[in-house]
From TrEMBL:
Keywords for this protein: Aminotransferase, Pyridoxal phosphate, Transferase
Statement: the UniProt record of this protein carries the keyword Transferase: yes
Stated name of the protein: Aspartate/tyrosine/aromatic aminotransferase
Pfam families associated with the record: Aminotran_1_2 (PF00155)
Annotated InterPro entries: Aminotransferase_I/II_large, Asp_trans, PyrdxlP-dep_Trfase, PyrdxlP-dep_Trfase_major, PyrdxlP-dep_Trfase_small
GO molecular function, one term: transaminase activity
NCBIfam families: PRK09257.1
Family per record: Belongs to the class-I pyridoxal-phosphate-dependent aminotransferase family.
Cofactor(s) listed in the protein's UniProt record: pyridoxal 5'-phosphate
Domain of life of the native organism: Bacteria
Length: 393
């Protein structure tokens, strides 16, 4: 059966990590894979997570199955983080999923059974897995203009003009904050304009928020999403604790469905549970148990918020530091890096220039020119700035 299979393609970001590991140059920099790193280049377990882990270890008395919806305290906590103080809060239902990836797939499957001819509109460019997940579920995908390659910011005018064409059979997928890969976020007035379009033309917004707290802060990063949830009838959300709790391998995320009544939202949740049953049945427990422990305990929540703020502070200072270092080389070409949000920036470098970064400077970026800001070390910024200016000349 399997002999006829064509060869599997290795994910380009994963093959980049392998090449980086094998590189023996001392000054090498890994700006590829999307994990947060501290100033020692490590991805440590957060203090709040360690304390919660200790608590779970001491208090958990069984490894019996969790329910199909996972940890309901966790589910409630995700709604608190994303929807508190909105009208959507009382007409929403959440289920725990294996990461935001699991949420994306469950929500795609839900749309498929509710409205099989749905088209999902995705930003150009978007997170590499958005299109494959939507298509694997059987949905159609179409792109809307997003990134302006000249300014390296969002081309709001082109985006809104295209989204004005979306109708009742369409779903518009937005990044809640910290757009992956570009780092260019839509403004609050864009959120308002898209909300108005959704209400006028009948498309449903779908928000993927995987970096809450990595842009401007917990509250600020949810502001656009909250405005939209408050002012639309139906909306869906995929969210992740991989980055802001550092729980990557624990596969911790949630899917949220908002509708015009709690009854409809809960029924949609029930249908997702059916879908989950025939896919993975139940999500893993550990990560969600840790998040639920942290967010149910005010002291632990404070520890977590403090650590998250430190991570955010590091990202902001690296962005400012790199921009300054590039300026010191006599170029203002990379000023946009300071305006970008979150871990990533699309630099506008071509695949050839990205190749030169790797070959001449041992700097590993993704082929589309994306760099992971959290992969930088303060003491390497001058070296990186020189490399960027050299290859872009
Ligand atoms: N959405 C976006 C925009 C992402 O960047 C990622 C990957 N970090 C995910 C979803 C999937 O995240 P998770 O690890 O929670 O599955």
């Amino acid at each position: 059966m399997f002999k006829q299979l064509t060869e599997a393609q290795l994910d380009p970001i994963l093959s980049l990590s392998i090449a980086y590991r094998e590189d023996e140059r001392e000054n090498k920099m890994d700006l590829g894979i999307g994990v947060y790193r501290n100033s020692q280049g490590e991805t440590p377990i957060m203090q709040a997570v360690q304390q919660a882990q200790q608590h779970v270890l001491e208090t958990q008395t069984t490894k019996g199955y969790v329910g199909l919806a996972g940890n309901e305290v966790f589910n409630q906590s995700m709604m608190d983080l994303l929807l508190a103080d909105t009208s959507a809060y009382t007409r929403a239902a959440a289920i725990q999923t294996p990461g935001a990836s699991g949420a994306l797939r469950m929500l795609a499957d839900l749309m498929c059974i509710a409205q099989p001819d749905t088209t999902v509109w995705i930003s150009n460019p978007s997170y590499v897995n958005h299109k494959p997940v939507m298509e694997a579920a059987g949905l159609k995908v179409r792109y809307y203009p997003y990134f302006n390659p000249t300014t390296k910011l969002v081309d709001s005018q082109a985006m809104l003009a295209e989204l004005a064409k979306a109708g009742p059979k369409d779903v518009v997928l937005l990044h809640g904050c910290c757009h992956n890969p570009t780092g260019a976020d839509i403004s609050f007035s864009d959120w308002q304009a898209i909300t108005e379009l959704a209400n006028k033309n009948g498309f449903m917004p779908f928000v993927d928020i995987a970096y809450l707290g990595f842009g401007d802060g917990l509250e600020q990063d949810a502001a656009g999403l909250k405005h939209m949830a408050d002012n639309t009838e139906e909306m869906i959300i995929a969210t992740s604790c991989s980055k802001n709790f550092g729980l990557y391998r624990e596969r911790t995320g949630a899917a949220i469905v908002i509708s015009d009544s709690l009854k409809v939202a809960q029924n949609a949740k029930g249908r997702i549970l059916n879908l989950a049953r025939s896919t993975y049945t139940m999500p893993p427990d550990h990560g969600a148990a840790l998040v639920a422990t942290i967010l149910s305990d005010p002291a632990l929540t404070q520890v977590w918020k403090q650590e998250l703020n430190e991570m955010l502070g590091r990202l902001l200072s690296l962005r400012a530091g790199l921009t300054k270092a590039v300026r010191a080389q006599g170029s203002d070409e990379f000023d946009f890096i300071e305006q970008h949000k979150g871990m990533f920036s699309v630099t506008g470098l071509s695949p050839e220039q990205v190749g030169r970064l790797r070959d001449e400077f041992a700097i590993y970026a993704v082929g589309d020119g994306r760099i992971n800001v959290a992969g930088m070390q303060e003491q390497q910024l001058d070296y990186l700035a020189n490399a960027l200016v050299t290859v872009s000349r």
